[in-house]
Amino acid sequence: MTYKGSLVATYKLAEYIIDSLQIELPNRKANKKWHKIFYGEEGYFENHNLSSNDQKNKIIASKKILRNAKLNSLLQLDMSNKKSKKLVAKIQRHLQQKMSYNDVKLRLVVKYEVNGKEQSANVDLIYDKFHKPKEEVIFSTLIQPIQIKSIIDGAIIKK
Question: How many domains does the chain have?
């Protein structure tokens, strides 16, 4: 089974166990040993928060109100052995007008620094249909290794 296939199976199995069998799954949020083992592994940050002493990855923004969404956090992740960074946006699960997340993208206007000069640009993040935390929706994209300073604005828009 592929990595993405295992993600789909894992979320479906967890949903079935919780909804149909009404069994409570272990809550690993406070289990420091578990977090130490899996911290930084692929898919970890889509489901968990960054550690405050993380030296490679950073939180760009948290708890920011966008035009039509509430951003819980925007993470800039170091991609080992790659010449890019990964942006992961976690927004509260809510979509107006009964649109499908597959039909939209998250457009952020970011302020960044290149060669000592501040600039701004639009960055489009795509809905991550494979990572499905219960209370958040994940959008992500790969970007050049620039230093993002802040989010100016943002909105969920149709593709």
Answer: 1
Residue 114 located in a structural domain: yes
User: Which residues does residue 107 pair with via DSSP β-bridges, in sequence order?
Assistant: 124, 155
29 contacts: CB under 8 Å, gap ≥ 6? 48
For residue 2, the one-letter residue type is T
Q: Measure the CA–CA gap between 9 and 95, rounded to whole angstroms.
A: 24
pLDDT at 30: 84
Q: How confident is the model at residue 154 (pLDDT cuts 50, 70, 90)?
A: very high
Q: What is the domain range of residue 63?
A: 55-158
Report how far residue 52's alpha carbon sits from residue 44's, in angstroms, rounded to the nearest whole number.
Answer: 15
Which residues, other chains included, contact 67 with Cβ-Cβ below 8 Å and sequence gap of 6+?
153, 154, 155
The predicted model scores a pTM of 0.86
Structural contact between residues 89 and 46, judged by C-beta atoms closer than 8 angstroms: no
Tens digit of each residue's pLDDT (9 = 90 or more) over 35-83: 889 999 989 999 999 998 999 999 999 999 999 999 999 999 998 877 8
CB-based contact 40:53 (threshold 8 Å): no
Q: 137-157: string of b/e by CB count within 10 Å (b at 16+)?
A: bbbbbebeebebeebeebebe
